Amino acid sequence: MNIQAIRLFLHVMERGSLAAGANELNMSQSAASRLLSGLERTTGLKLFSRDGHSLRPTAEGAQYFNECRRVLIAVDELPRAARRLASGVQSRLKVASGPRLANSLMMPAIGRFVKMHPDVEIEFQLVHAHEFSRMISEPPDVAAGAMMSMNIVTVETTPLFDMPSVAIMRRDHPLAKRGFVRVADIAKHRLIATPPGPRRDDLEHLFRSQGVDLHPQYICNSVEHGCSMVLQTGAVMIADPLVPLATNPKPFAMVPLKPVHMVRTSIFTPVLKPESRLIAAFKACLRDEGQATVQRVTALLGNEAEKTAKPPGPRK
User: Fold this and answer.
1) Are residues 50 and 178 in the same domain?
2) Same domain for 204 and 177
3) In the predicted model, is pLDDT for residue 149 greater than 50?
4) How many angstroms separate the CA atoms of 212 and 187, rounded?
5) Per-residue pLDDT tens for 15-34?
6) Strand partners, 97
7) 23 φ/ψ sector (left φ>0, alpha ψ -120 to 50, else beta)
8) How far is 288 from 112, CA to CA, in rounded Å?
9) For residue 130, which of 33, 76, 90, 102 sits 20 to 30 Å off, Cα-Cα?
10) DSSP labels for 251-304?
11) What CA–CA distance (Å, rounded) separates 265 from 286?
12) What CATH number does residue 192 fall under?
């Protein structure tokens, strides 16, 4: 199959026109049109519906785009792999996490790992919740994140630690001096929430379970920036304490929720990929850093954290 035709197809899809795609590859529009037509003949797929001079991707064209992008990423990786082997670097590890864990868990774990394996090449990916499906189709060697409610047969999940949710607020907030707060207490104040998605669903379920309606005044699609918004607006955000812990916890008051609401962090690995020595070593670094994280949260929250925060699960 013509790789140049696939590259053109991807450029047309990403830029929305044949002319823009042709320009990316420094070819004429007529040559690009012939190349695309040849790709459709070769694949037996109708990739675009043609309306005059405009191209609209068909449903099968959109699906084929996802497959082509995945394959082309692997093809483009080959020269880098060759350079890596030629330079004597024999090993490479691809790791990922969500934004919540990037600075608080994953980066310290990488630091632990490279002290023992300084010659290993590491690629880190930041994966947001809406990108989880992409991570399944192009899985990293090791990922860390919140426990997903659905069972995914291609991913093995190993519990790492459980962390109590807290109400994050400024230190001068009326609720800041309390030993704990309930959802009904928080609902009387301005609240920051994330947009619709898994995290928002979890928050809505928490409110409904206590007979309280969720009416956030502010919406922020990032917990990290939500914590910054807490300081600017005086509102409250419900999250685990890892984000303030990874930045600077001093400006924040973090008050535990009652009843206790736990957030599980887990290690994800591809089921079909054998566990190498390096993958096992990186997972051990995650467990060690997870233990240290639990200890930091316990010191930060005091007795309430001692009752709830749990260390990493048993080693496998």
Assistant:
1) no
2) yes
3) no
4) 8
5) 888 888 889 889 998 999 89
6) 126, 144
7) alpha
8) 9
9) 76
10) TEEEEEBSS--EEEEEEEEETTS---HHHHHHHHHHHHHHHHHHHHHHHHHTHH
11) 11
12) 3.40.190.290
Is residue 53 over pLDDT 70? no
SS3 of residue 90 by DSSP: coil
CA atoms within 13 A on the CB side of 281: 16
- Cα(177)–Cα(181) distance, integer angstroms: 10
Token pair recorded at residue 114:
């490279």
SS3 label, residue 151:
coil
Question: How far apart are alpha carbons 196 and 187 in whole angstroms?
Answer: 18
Where residue 153 falls among pLDDT bands split at 50, 70, 90? low
Q: How many structural domains are present in the chain?
A: 3
Residue 201 lies in a domain: yes
Last residue of a domain, one of 260, 285, 300: 260
**Residue 101 and residue 240 in one domain:** no
Dist CA 214 CA 305 (whole Å): 26
Least confident span in 121-130, 215-224, 297-306? 297-306
Task: Flag the least confident range among 98-102, 230-234, 277-281, 282-286.
Answer: 98-102
Which residue type sits at 199? Answer: R
Does residue 276 register a pLDDT over 80?
Answer: yes
Structural domain that includes position 35: 3-85
First to last CA, the chain: 43
Residues 170 and 254 in one domain: yes
- The pairing of strands 142-146 and 262-270 is antiparallel
Amino acid in position 279: I
In whole angstroms, what is the distance from residue 115 CA to residue 126 CA?
A: 22
d(CA 52, CA 254): 60
Query: What value does the CA radius of gyration of the chain take, rounded to a whole number of Å?
Result: 24
